[in-house]
Amino acid sequence: MITIALSTLTGVPLAWCLYRYSSTGQRKWLVPAGQLMLSLAFVLTMRAGVSAVLYGGEDKIVVVAYLLFGAAAALILAGRDWQGRLATLLKVFIACNFSIFLSMSLAAHATLIVGVHASEQLYKALPEAKSIEKLSPEQKEELSRKLAGALAGGDRFVRIGALNALLLRLPEYSAAALPALGPLLASDDPETRLPALRLIKVLGGAAAPLLPELKDRLAKAPKGSDTYTLEQAIKIASTAQPPVD
Question: pLDDT at position 96, please?
Answer without folding.
Answer: 97
